[in-house]
Amino acid sequence: MLRRLSTKWVLAVLASVVVPFLGFAWYVDVRLADRLSSDIVRYYLLSLAADLAARVDGELDERKLDMELWATDPLVVWSVGPDADDFVPLLQEGFDRFVRRSGTFDLLLALDRDGRCVVSNGVDQAGAPLDPELDARLRGRPYGAEPWFRRALGGESVLVDFHRTDLHPSAAPSEVPRPEDYAVGIAEPVRAPDSDEVIGVVYGSVNWTVFQTGILDTSRSGYFKGLIGSEIYASSYAWLWKSDGNTIIAHPRKELYGKRVAEEPVALPQLVAAANADEWAMFPEYEFGGVRKQAAFRHCKGPARGGLGWVVGIGIDNSDIYATVNELNNLLVKATIVVLGVVVLWTFFIARRTTRPILELTQHTRAVAAGDLESRIDVRSKDELGELAEAFNKMTAELAQSRSQLVRAEKEAAWREMARQVAHEIKNPLTPISLSMNLLRRARDEDSAEFDKILERTLELVGRQVENMREIAQNFYLFAGRHETNPGPTDLRALVDEVLDLSAAWAEELGVEIGVSGEGTARLDPTEFRRVLINLVNNALEAMPDGGRLEVRIEPVGQRVRLVVRDTGEGVPEEVRAHLFEPYFTTRSGGTGLGLAICKRVVDELGGEIELRSAEGGGTEAVLTLPT
């Protein structure tokens, strides 16, 4: 019986399955559980505590930078100066726009050196007007007695720690603390343009949800995903203490806000001692709410480095640390029983037919045909079947190498195309900036009476173009992950006027007359479509180096709207027109040839159509048909 081939194969299979399983089960139950609880969890907790602390510091640094930029903004400097009334409306509009877009600041104040509020934002983050009573209280309050104001007036950059204040424009505080009722304040001195004299203070209030929800919510971050399992979200959480290492300022249980860690209801003085003894370490294992836990902490930057010295902590339940080990043991037992039975039956069948090598070759061939080029056959003999297996393995290895080279080449081509698109997109805002600067320089050299007006227009244009380039960079960053648009009803006439205003200096330089007619609304993403208009207008201006006329018409057509951009340039030959929307095709010596390709992609995604054709009387018309 033991000499039979089928019996030997069955015993070999049993040995190959059972022995490794027993060894692996012992390793998982003893070694892996111990390593998971000591080394891996310790490493992850310490790393995540450091990462959270860095993110908290980074968030504070970003918000401080925002306020530093506001402190040097000319509108702020002028508003707290003697001519404040001339600039207050513009500054309030800027404050309102910043509050809506930032998603972090609830309040912005510009204060003169006497502590009077010159300007404050009039809307909340959702764009809703502030309560009139709150708005009046903000504007009428004397800030001269505030400690942060006096320090900032002395030239110091001031961080106002986690606090609850009547300055905060949220709803009335509830009985149970809410993150939106708390804030971090940032006060920056405003200096005179030509000296270090402090002439006022700009103050911003950062909503606490930025830290509680945006950074410390581990269920949203997925920190433990893949390490322990989905059930970890029930027990993992992060918290934040003040620099004393004893006062809770952020915690999933909001009722603990302001509580002392060493006192009831927390009563964990050993954690306070550990946090005050080291900058970065593991807490001693502790019990909270009847559950054993492990946690790590890291101190944020202290006041000497521009921070607040908060203590970030992150921990998980011990039961979740071992949950995966227990699940893995159970899974191994069940899977081994099933696999062992199947393998034994299958081995008997193959042994009797003595066709196992051929069947294996068939299975691997099908795997390769399905795309698994990592499939390999175990070579068990030196006979013809062994040589066939070696030849098969060599073939799949060569196929895998060829596919890898092809994938690498495709990736390189994709990156090259993206680089060209970035260059093309950045060039468009730079052109009006350069021309406006030349016009400004010429006005200065000629001592033009319009110099101040040109300067103001140039500064506004440069600011808009810098913002456009920032949006371009952000969009390409998003494009590297997932491309998203935000279409909505848009006033085409306003968008066209804005783009033509950007190119006004260039058109004047070329001697091109501009005309706009018609009104219309289309459903589109203004940021995306602005680039389409910029491309078309720039192409039209480049087609008229010796002057001419640029016309833009907006015509409602049933349930759609037509937008026509016409120039009086040389026109486009028929044989060239068929290739204009192809990537990298261009009729100019310079340029990437991506402009019209990008225009077509954007219009297609909007569900519209774009066509370039010869205009009656000469020149070229770009006709866009968009859904309303």
General description of the model:
By secondary structure, the chain is of the alpha+beta class. A hairpin with a 5-residue loop joins strand 17 (609-614) and strand 18 (620-627). Helix 1 runs antiparallel to helix 10 and helix 12 packs across helix 15. The N and C termini lie far apart (83 Å). The chain contains 18 helices and 18 strands. It has three domains: 29-58 and 216-324, 2-Layer Sandwich (Beta-Lactamase); 73-207, Beta-Lactamase (2-Layer Sandwich), CATH 3.30.450.20; 416-627, Heat Shock Protein 90 (2-Layer Sandwich), CATH 3.30.565. The protein has helices at 5-72, 74-79, 88-102, 132-140, 147-153, 209-212, 218-221, 269-277, 318-321, 323-353, 356-369, 384-445, 451-481, 492-502, 504-510, 526-542, 574-577, 595-605; strands at residues 105-112, 117-120, 158-163, 183-191, 198-207, 237-241, 248-250, 280-282, 286-288, 291-299, 311-317, 488-491, 512-517, 521-524, 548-557, 560-567, 609-614, 620-627. Helix content is 50%, strand content 18%. Strands 6, 7, 8, 9, 10 and 11 form a six-stranded antiparallel β-sheet that branches. The radius of gyration is 34 Å and the shape is flat.
In total, how many beta strands? 18
Largest sheet: 6 strands, antiparallel
The helix fraction, in percent, is 40-55%
CATH class division of the largest domain:
Alpha Beta
Give the DSSP E fraction (strand runs of 2 or more residues): 15-25%
**CATH H-level name of the largest domain... which superfamily?**
Histidine kinase-like ATPase, C-terminal domain
Low-confidence sequence ranges: 226-233, 478-482
Number of domains: 3
| Assembly type | single chain
Task: Indicate the structural class.
Answer: alpha+beta
| Count of runs of 4 or more consecutive helical residues | 18
Distance between the termini: 83 Å
According to CATH, the fold-level topology of the largest domain is: Heat Shock Protein 90
Q: Name the overall outline.
A: flat
User: What's the gyration radius in Å?
Assistant: 34 Å
On the 0 to 100 scale, the average pLDDT is: 81
Architecture of the largest domain in CATH? 2-Layer Sandwich
